[in-house]
């Protein structure tokens, strides 16, 4: 089932997510719904806060961007309780977008190599060194679990320049081709 994507301004996107365990109710259905939502929104990653849940769950299918990023080929992943360790190395600035910030794209500087520890949908533990664009996708999605958005990595001046677009998202003036949930209206 396609779920609505929560948009910028919704408080769920700014909360730190909680660790989950193997007795999480209906995990398989949730993961299926997250993948379906991500595909319908034409994303390559989706974190649980983006569907209104502050749980440490991420789904990724990086294969659609593998033509220009070979490290992404065949990389369909479920990350439960992921932990990202930043490794020494080059920082690369590239454009990023986000399903929770429709119509926006900003240049974000991120480290090129990370060590990722996570559990899969069966709660089997994994650890891997990940590089390139796949590392960027993982960092972006894991930021959501910490209540961060990619715009938190841009300069204050750049953020001021996109303030009108951000306000349009908050006020519900931005339209999407996928189901969304806007921030609750503030009571006067």
What does this 3D model show about the protein?
It is a single chain. This protein has one domain (5-181): Peptide deformylase (Peptide Deformylase, Alpha-Beta Complex). It contains four helices and nine strands, in the order βαβββββββαααβ. The protein has helices spanning 27-40, 132-145, 156-161, 163-170; strands spanning 5-6, 45-47, 57-61, 76-86, 91-96, 106-111, 113-119, 125-131, 180-181. The protein is globular and about 50 Å long. 32% of the residues are buried. The mean pLDDT is 97.
Condensed summary:
The chain is of the alpha+beta class.
Number of strand elements? 9
CATH class: Alpha Beta
Tally of helical segments: 4
The CATH H-level superfamily is Peptide deformylase
CATH topology, anyone? Peptide Deformylase
Spans where pLDDT lies below 50 across 5 or more residues: none
Q: If you average the pLDDT, what whole number results?
A: 97
CATH architecture level-2 label: Alpha-Beta Complex
Largest sheet: 5 strands, antiparallel
Proportion in helices: 10-25%
Mass-distribution shape: globular
Rg: 16 Å
Oligomer: single chain
**C-alpha termini separation:** 35 Å
Alpha-beta classification: alpha+beta
Strand proportion: 25-35%
Q: What's the order of the H and E elements?
A: EHEEEEEEEHHHE
Instruction: Please list the strands of the largest sheet in the order they lie side by side.
Output: 2-3-4-7-8
- How many domains? The number is 1
């Amino acid at each position: 089932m396609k779920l609505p994507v929560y948009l910028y301004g919704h408080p769920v996107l700014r909360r730190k997510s909680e660790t989950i365990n193997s007795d999480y109710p209906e995990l398989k259905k949730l993961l299926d719904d997250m993948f379906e939502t991500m595909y319908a929104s034409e994303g390559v990653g989706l974190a649980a806060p983006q569907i209104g849940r502050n749980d440490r769950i991420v789904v990724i299918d990086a294969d659609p961007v593998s033509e220009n990023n070979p490290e992404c080929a065949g990389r369909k992943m479920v990350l439960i309780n992921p932990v990202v360790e930043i490794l020494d190395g080059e920082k690369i600035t590239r454009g990023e977008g986000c399903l929770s910030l429709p119509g926006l794209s900003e240049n974000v500087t991120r480290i090129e190599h990370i060590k990722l520890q996570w559990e899969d949908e069966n709660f089997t533990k994994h650890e891997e060194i990940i590089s390139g664009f796949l590392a960027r996708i993982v960092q972006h999605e894991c930021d959501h679990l910490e209540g961060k958005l990619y715009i938190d990595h841009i300069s204050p001046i750049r953020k001021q320049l996109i303030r009108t677009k951000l306000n349009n998202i908050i006020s519900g003036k931005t339209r999407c081709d996928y189901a969304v949930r806007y921030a609750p209206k503030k009571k006067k």
